[in-house]
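hiii, so i know i said id send this last week but things got crazy w the move. better late than never?? heres the sequnce for the chain we talked about at the cafe, plus the structure i predicted for it. fair warning i was half asleep when i ran it
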Amino acid sequence: MRIGIDCRTILNPEKGEGAGVGHYTYQLVRHLLKIDKKNIYFLFFDRLVQKKRLTKFRQKNVLIRFFPFNQYKKLIPADYMHFLVNAVISREELDVFHSPNLVMPSIYKGPSVVTVHDLSFYKFPETIPLQESRSLKKIIPNILKEADKIIAVSKATAKDLEEIFNLPRKKIKVIYHGLDQRFFRKRGLAEIKKIKKKYKISNNYLLFLGTFEPRKNIIRLIEAYERFRNGLIHSSISQKKDFFSKYQLVLAGAEGKNSKKIKEKIFKSRYRKDIILPGYIAADDLGRLFSGADLFVFSSLYEGFGLPIIEAMAKRVPVITSNVSSMPEVSQDAALLIDPYDVAQIAQAIYDVLTDKRLNKKLRDRGLKRAKNFKWEKCAKETLSIYKQLSKG
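okay and structure toks below
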């Protein structure tokens, strides 16, 4: 087979960095090339990518290709860019072309696969600019209609695809993300101490990880933290005065559309000195930051998958997450589920996990077991199976 994959979202192949789609594409390609030495892979990049970043992809059955004129794409009409991209893909006479980012030239007619990571631009359109939202709602239905196969990263996302776009279930295949094995590495106290110092964390801490945007529900999480710090919880045991004050809240992630409101909320909080904003966390620091946390709280309103959930579980950190969209599916019985709209319930859950030793241990043990189910090699094998199906068809 001649397999083409759009690799433009890979931001740093050397370390597998790059949020979301970039990380997925890097890991998928890396493991496809590991398990498949027979088929020919055409990896399509923009010319802006540095040549040294392509080293890991170079092997006998790999051909690197570049899309033209990327640096001028703002000056070239969108329809003409579609024509140029289509020309580059089509001349390779591929048996299948895979777009991991739900981007496909409108005129491409070869066998194709697209991966859908989430449908936040439909569920929460306020998270992206209005013009971009309108453009996506115009383009995406056609891409999904023309694709021969759609990979959904969860059953919840597959259900959204069926309901929103009226797609036949047989066209959709659910293939879960994998988990980088580095998350299972144990971290020593010295490493944890070093990472806390780097990000100016001076105490025990509750951790959140995600882009600062409305659907991540960070403002309600801050309110739940305030409620927890105020001791507004149900308990049959009287806690010492310093129990609640020893926990800081670390909100890690890149700034998004909700950043200003979140910072305003923190500024007005009486506990603002204990709410830490370390910003985007580099891949090398992520495992250590998880390892040092007493609890991971991921009370998002919507996720297509929810990768941070299993990353935390792999580090044996107890997880609290939402009872909506993909999160119950991904976490199963290994997390404490809450209503993300109920601030009091989030605060109570935080208290319960921190004080109930049996619950805490159960979540840690079940979480580690659950995280081991997500393997990139399995993701690659199932994806390769789709390529083979389309090639024969």
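btw The chain has two domains: 2-178+375-392, 181-371. thought thatd interest u
miss u guys!!
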